[in-house]
Amino acid sequence: MLLDSASLYFRAYFGVPDTLRSPQGEPVNAVRGLLDFIARLVHDHRPDHLVACMDADWRPQWRVDLIPTYKTHRVAEAAVDGEEEVPDTLAPQVPVIEQVLDALGIARVGSPGYEADDVIGTLTARATGPVQIVTGDRDLFQLVDDARAVTVLYPVKGMGNLQVTDDALLLEKYGVRGTQYADMAALRGDPSDGLPGVRGIGEKTAAQLINEYGDLPAIRAAALDIGSKLTPARRRNIVEGAAYLDVAPKVVRVADDAPLPRFDPALPAEPADPMLLEDLSTRWGLGTSLDRVVEALATR
Fold first, then answer.
1. Helix, strand or coil for residue 158?
2. What is the SS3 string spanning 237-265?
3. What is the pLDDT of residues 207-266, one digit of tens each?
């Protein structure tokens, strides 16, 4: 089980009331919400391995070099060194989350110059058994693969209602399989990530083209073939989008070869550092949220 950690703690932050506070009055809603998520995931799914995948670089320069608008709107106006804009009361909770995960003994893995998505892509590529990816980010649907038993658990409403995303569901909702999702995403673009897409091609048209021609290179070849069935307007838009389409697949596709440190992915049966965990629980008032994780680990 691979956790898209930032996606989940952002979701916890906005979904759990900020009235949850430490004894000193600091908000701990993201910390406690994430712990509640993890407790439920461990209890319901009983994974052998659990890895909290982290953003060592939320906006890698190599992606920005290819598409300068990549995630531009998420950069805080007053940020230093292009830091991501994070709510004032969430940022101080992230180090607490990291400390608690480490004290629990849950593997926490990032890779310099790569996003958590790339860590997830790399670990998925290395996996020899079934993989469950837990994320609120549709970009990771590209990793869904029924043949390898790779599914995405996508929170529809909180963590109590997880959509089990497999190829059948993707075909029903988007008209493409997981292995075709990145091509569709490149064609349609994604304003939330600063990806313009190809003019005049939305999600449905992108899926239609992929089903007709197979993949993005074949669609581009058809645009250059005056004998293809593409309409003149669609042909023109694809040809005019050549510069974008030259680089978009590399930006959209998650890496499967990110360098990763050595780590133990095994889900612990008990906390790695119980004394530190007790200190953290007392300092931050983590109470029943932490207790539920410890109980889930012990009874899995």
1. coil
2. HHHHCHHHHHHHHHHHCCCCCCCCCCCCC
3. 999 999 999 999 999 999 999 999 999 999 999 999 999 999 999 999 999 999 999 999
Q: Cβ(247)–Cβ(67) under 8 Å?
A: yes
pLDDT tens readout for residues 142-192: 999 999 999 999 998 766 789 999 999 999 999 999 999 999 999 999 988
Dump the DSSP string for 50-65: -EEE--S-SS-HHHHH
Question: What is the amino acid identity at position 148?
Answer: R
Which residues are within 8 A (CB) of 296 and not within 5 positions of it... i.e. 6 or more apart? 38, 39, 40, 42, 43
Q: What is the pTM of this model?
A: 0.94
Report the interhelical angle of 93-104 vs 5-15 (nearest 10°).
Answer: 120
- Bridging pattern class, strands 161-165 and 107-109: unpaired
